[in-house]
Amino acid sequence: MTTLAAWSGVDPRGPSSLYLVSDSRISWGSYLNRWDAGRKLFACKSTPDVFGYVGDVLFPSLMLGQIIAAADDGVLFPTGASAEARHAIVAETVKVSLGSRFNAPDRSFAILHGARDGSGMNARFRLWTLTYVASTWTRAAVWTDEELSIDKTQSALHTALGSGGRAVKKQNEDLQYDPQGRTSRAIFWAFCDALKNKADPLSGGAPQLIGLYRTEMGKSYGITYEGHRYYQGLPVPDSAHLNGIEWRDVNFQRVDGATMQVLHGAQRHGRR
């Protein structure tokens, strides 16, 4: 399965960011059969929408790739569509697409959709969980579509899904009383700690991170993890163009993609 989490960041003026984070492991029945470089997070380039998935891999990963392409080419959303309208279109598109299967495996999955209305100080962040529970011999398949509330007073973990979700929630709870608890960096620490501790054998590989802010579209980060570089789960070689994106380490610090050291002048987040 996997681990997928979402949280919002708050500054003195209110909610300022929405993040999705996931692992990179795709497994087939057991952690012994795995691939640790699978993409699980997606960000639109033309609208403020970000996505992640847990559960079944084949359908959600292919479907979200199609949704991103259609949105970025101006096919999917009417001009000026609200976050709620965009989500309704995404949900209907996913349902119609899944309905086109024939004699295909029926597996459960969930999609997180983070979005933004407005921009600047008028920005409002939204977050939904679209869940498909596969049919069984005794029960028909079930869809649920739930909007999650965004905490306006403090940075907060809003959900942690998948086989490793419980471990992330526990790590986050353990950090609540840390002097740096209830911050975006502490929530990211909690996720990385759960991943590094191998609390869930079906979650692994490097963390993936996407952020949505008051302005512009979603941002995909490069991650330095255990001495290596990764982008959306993909190992990045030394020969790559490393300055084209922003890089973060497991302490949520801004780092140089080439040296993997904290950037000069960047805020440092020391841990006890």
Question: What composes the largest sheet?
Answer: 5 strands, antiparallel
Percent of residues in beta strands? 25-35%
Strand order of the largest sheet: 10-1-2-11-12
Number of helices: 4
CATH class: Alpha Beta
Order of helices and strands: EEEEEEHHEEEEHHEEEEEEE
Query: What is the architecture at the second tier of CATH?
Result: 4-Layer Sandwich
Determine Rg (CA atoms, Å).
18 Å
Share of helical residues: 10-25%
Task: Give the total of domains.
Answer: 1
Enter the CATH topology name: Glutamine Phosphoribosylpyrophosphate, subunit 1, domain 1
Number of strands: 17
Spans of at least 5 consecutive residues with low confidence:
none
CATH superfamily: Aminohydrolase, N-terminal nucleophile (Ntn) domain
What is the averaged pLDDT score? 94
Write the layout of secondary structure elements.
Elements: E1 3-11, E2 14-22, E3 26-27, E4 34-35, E5 41-43, E6 49-55, H1 58-72, H2 83-98, E7 109-117, E8 124-133, E9 142-148, E10 156-162, H3 165-174, H4 184-196, E11 208-213, E12 219-220, E13 222-225, E14 228-231, E15 234-235, E16 247-248, E17 254-255
Parallel strand pairs: 13-16
Antiparallel strand pairs: 1-2, 1-10, 2-11, 3-4, 5-6, 6-7, 7-8, 8-9, 11-12, 13-14, 14-15, 16-17
